[in-house]
Specification:
By secondary structure, the chain is α/β, with parallel strands linked by helices. Helix content is 36%, strand content 16%. The chain has two domains: 96 residues, Phosphoglycerate kinase, N-terminal domain (Rossmann fold); 207 residues, 3-Layer(aba) Sandwich (Rossmann fold).
Length: 321
Amino acid sequence: MKPICENLEKKINRKIKIIDSDIFKLKQEDLFKDPNDQIVFLENIRFYGEEEKNDFNFSKHLAGLADLFVNDAFSCSHRTHASVSKITEFLPSFAGLQLEIEINALKKVTTDIKKPITCIIGGSKISTKIGIIKNLIPKFNNIIIVGGMANNILNHKGISIGKSIKEDNCKTIINEIFETSKNYSCEITYPEDVMVGKNFEDKSQVKELNEISEDDLILDIGPKTINKIKDIIKISETVLWNGPAGFFENPNFANGSHEIAKAIIKNNQNNSIYSVAGGGDTIALINQINAVEDFNFVSTAGGAFLEYLEGKELPGIKALN
């Protein structure tokens, strides 16, 4: 925790004391022996196996060091750990301000929805996002699938995807997505044209779906697809974005993702949509164009964000409830 403490000390202009001695030998009266101590940090408690085991005695001992417990880490709230879950049994427990902001923002894309609502979902593997897609189809008007995930759909539709990345054994998953979407009048959108290269370092070339050759790699969405996505964003009241549209690490294949970001920002500035973005790659991309402040909410969480969107009950939130 040392670098974190040093950073925070500068930000709040206060001295922070780190206690890195054996936590089991620590008592509440040891924490503020020096009258000048105002803020005390414990060293990262994941060094103790009992933390991840959600151990009863470890939680009780942690609670014995405190007067109350505040969870302000939404990003850890999907973990059944002692300092997230079990500790609430021994102390008055509360949600922190950041956690409350995060939950309220995510409610706007899961339960307290303003329609029409659109989800733009990307990434490389459709199997890792199937839980989210299935949970959102009954609630959403549009689901736009981009990135490597979209290759599976194109391949499923009998379109040649050259040597682009795809997953095996996805037929059932994709059938399920399209069947479920029919039952709930949710429109599934996937690329109509693409940007290809021969390798990840290549320049980009626009191609229609029937023009993709065997040695092509699909690495971004094409101009027709970008315009279609812009039109959908324009008629939406709420937009959720998780996952880039292409291999944005190479600027030649970042255009699709940048154009999606710009379209969301433009409609945000008109106050015509409420926008939520999350996921490591999406945040990296938004940071690339210094646009974090231009979204209504950018989630700090990875796994917790995805599990919440899947409709799973998060242990940290359940414990507070």
